[in-house]
Amino acid sequence: MIYRTASDAETIALGERLARELTGVVLLIGNLGAGKTTLAKGIVNGLGAAAPDEVSSPTFTLIHEYGEGRVYHVDLYRLDEAREVATLGLDDMIAGGGLVLIEWGERFPNLLPPERTEIRIHPVGDDEREIEVIRLPS
Ligand code: ADP
Ligand code: MG
Description:
Elements: E1 2-5, H1 8-18, E2 25-29, H2 36-46, E3 63-66, E4 71-75, H3 82-86, H4 90-95, E5 99-103, E6 116-123, E7 129-136
Parallel strand pairs: 2-5, 2-6, 4-5
Antiparallel strand pairs: 1-7, 3-4, 6-7
């Protein structure tokens, strides 16, 4: 499925709608400023785990948890080594049944479960985004 949004508010609204169909590991893929964290705000809100304003980028903290294990928001931007990622406990988050949203997860392909959703965000103009949802294996 490919969606198009024309503002950050529309991307949040799309995340709210997508939230209920998402399970397991969801990679949020796109360059800096594409809108990965903005989409996460909508997904977290759509699950009733936290309001969009309460969702901030986990770039420095690595992991934010919302709704007591219902949603994890992970950012691997600052990690370089697979063994660093291995210490985060992604497997436990998944095993606990939480939704695990990961920014920059595609940098560590060997650590990802084959069954996952990839959401690819492509900037089209200043404020337009093409947002593609891909379920693997397809
Ligand atoms: P990322 O996490 O991918 O680095 P952010 O979500 O933190 O990106 O930032 C996206 C930036 O782009 C924000 O400043 C947001 O206001 C802006 N923006 C403009 N149009 C959109 C849109 N359609 N969807 C998402 N963000 C948008
Ligand atoms: Mg981000």
